[in-house]
Design goal:
Layout lengths: L1 H9 L5 E4 L2 E5 L15 E5 L10 H4 L14 E5 L1 E4 L9 E4 L3 E7 L13 E5 L16 E4 L22 E6 L3 E2 L6 E2 L20 E2 L2 E8 L15 E3 L8 E5 L4 H6 L13 E2 L2 E2 L22 H9 L5 H5 L18
Protein name: DUF1996 domain-containing protein
Organism: Aspergillus keveii
Pfam family, one: DUF1996
């Protein structure tokens, strides 16, 4: 399958990966709507210290993480995927689908110049997109059936039109250039073709960082036992499949973030070793990760819509949130909420 060959080729360089278990569904977005319970629903993974105001790595390290690597206290989130049953009662049409597996790949480590900065946060994708024309191809948004033959006529960012024999899978790529002071980001480019880019393939003032890639699998066999032919009865909290996006706030221990770049000669997979342990041995926490702010916000779809209807933040604020270096992004990153 062509897609498999592409992914395999992309992993030929130095990379690591950590599996991060599901944490919660919640209508918050501390990057885009800090302090407000007005976001569409998101699926969260990682540190359970995340709340509506989270902005620092230190805050995330105060919690328990669902990451299999004990040194990773980062928080990752994406819009929740729903099964839509139009024949159900009005307030029961959308059933959230818990991802079967969330994997955070950190790639091109042998090309990175600096580790993720403390408090680094970034958004990839366009939450307002309704078609492929609204997307930045650098985001690499892809929906496909894991292990199945690719649909040659399907747009990469569209849902599969045939039942998946195993899992529905989606991919999302994040910018790999960043200004460590402003958190401005961009996707690396060939300087011979893109003016303003330097030999490190980044714009002025930016350095190469590890290239983060989300890989998410959903098992739909129980919720859709008869499968589908055509558009599946699925919807993201932000809209159709083209609005797929992802958010990340760095919570890796500094020693682990630095270890990713320790040996620039590496050109294969390797495990991260740091003070709390090696590889995917599991969380160092002695309790079960859980929502740190259960009294506020909601995990109910209908209630989230009611809360969104009363939001006070306008669209311009949503695309340029200003809090602790927030809102600094480069035009080549192309993200919107």
């Amino acid at each position: 399958m062509l897609l498999s060959l592409i992914l395999t080729a992309g992993l030929a360089r130095a990379y690591t990966v950590t599996k991060v278990d599901f944490l919660m569904f919640k209508n918050i977005d501390p990057i885009v709507f800090p302090g407000q319970y007005v976001s569409h629903m998101h699926s969260f993974f990682g540190s359970d210290a995340v709340n509506v105001n989270t902005s620092t790595s230190a805050e995330l390290r105060e919690g328990c993480s669902t990451a299999r690597n004990p040194n990773d206290f980062s928080v990752y989130w994406v819009p929740t995927l729903f099964h839509v049953n139009t024949s159900a009662p009005a307030n029961q049409t959308h059933t959230p689908i818990k991802p079967m597996r969330f994997s955070a790949y950190y790639e091109l480590l042998n090309e990175a110049e600096i580790p993720f900065p403390e408090d680094f946060q970034v958004v990839a994708g366009n939450a307002s997109a309704t078609s492929s024309s609204d997307l930045n191809s650098d985001n690499g948004i892809t929906w496909f059936c894991e292990g199945d033959e690719s649909e040659e006529t399907k747009e990469k960012a569209a849902f599969p039109t045939k039942t998946c024999s195993t899992h529905l899978q989606t991919l999302l790529l994040f910018p790999d250039c960043a200004n460590p002071e402003t958190f401005e980001t961009a996707y690396s480019k060939n300087p011979n073709s893109f003016p303003g880019y330097n030999e490190n393939r980044c714009p002025d003032g930016m350095y190469r960082i590890p290239k983060l890639r989300f890989s998410i699998r959903y098992d739909l066999r129980d919720i859709l036992p008869d499968g589908w032919d055509g558009a599946p009865p699925l919807e993201l909290a932000c809209g159709n499949e083209f609005c797929s996006h992802g958010d990340f706030i760095n919570g890796w221990l500094p020693e682990a973030a630095e270890y990713m770049l320790e040996d620039p000669t590496k050109a294969e997979y390797f495990q991260i070793k740091a003070p709390l342990g090696d590889g995917d041995q599991g969380s160092a926490c002695t309790r079960v990760a859980a929502d740190s702010d259960p009294e506020h916000g909601t995990s109910d779809y209908a209630e989230s819509l009611r809360m969104m209807a009363g939001k006070s933040t306008n669209a311009s604020n949503a695309t340029s949130p200003a809090k602790c270096k927030r809102g600094h992004h480069h035009g080549h990153g192309h993200w919107r909420h």
